[in-house]
Amino acid sequence: LDIKEIMDKKYEINKLNKIKDSKLDTILYNLIEELEELFYPLQLLVEEEGTILEIYNHTEIVKRWTNLKATIQEKYQGKVIENYLEYYHKTVSDKNILEKLLFKDTFLNAYFYQLYINYTSSFYVEKQYNFPLLSKMKSIEYQIKQEINPFLIENGKIEIDVSGKSIDK
């Protein structure tokens, strides 16, 4: 994924190209892959401390859904496909439901939820961190150690090493 700040506290997430495993070339996998395109670009409004507040471009996603749904209905047939599309329609159309599902995403939480912070001259931070691992569980407390490489790696990227363990009883 490619994440960039588009405005103060608004971020745009785009999917990068990935190599498809030929073993996963099934109708359902192809359908899921096509359906996930619906969300990109995804624009999120994020608080300074990392809490995701809302999907900023929900209206655009709903518009894309109308076109994508028609394309998929032409391409795939069957009761399973129709049930899947009905589920997606309910989820995508209702901003509250979609936000509930997306805000539980592990990647989004790890990226925004206070994991990436300012470093001191030691390039090292150790802290306790509560992470929402599963939707129906309370957040789990971790002791996290983060170290940032003071030098840029290939293509001018920053390397951050994060390790930790659960300290939650």
What does this protein look like?
With 169 residues, this protein is α+β, with helices and mostly antiparallel strands. Helix content is 34%, strand content 26%. The protein has five helices and seven strands. It has helices at 27-36, 58-75, 79-93, 95-102, 106-112, and strands at residues 2-7, 10-14, 42-46, 52-55, 124-131, 140-148, 160-166. It has a four-stranded antiparallel sheet, with no helix packed on it. Helix 2 packs antiparallel against helix 3. It is elongated and about 55 Å long. The two termini are 34 Å apart.
Strand-helix topology:
Blueprint: E1 2-7, E2 10-14, H1 27-36, E3 42-46, E4 52-55, H2 58-75, H3 79-93, H4 95-102, H5 106-112, E5 124-131, E6 140-148, E7 160-166
Antiparallel strand pairs: 1-2, 2-3, 3-4, 5-6, 6-7
Helix pairs in contact: 2-3
- Cα gyration radius (Å): 19 Å
How much helicity do the residues have?
25-40%
- Strand content range: 25-35%
Low-confidence stretches: none
Please report the number of helical segments: 5
> Structural class, from helix and strand content?
alpha+beta
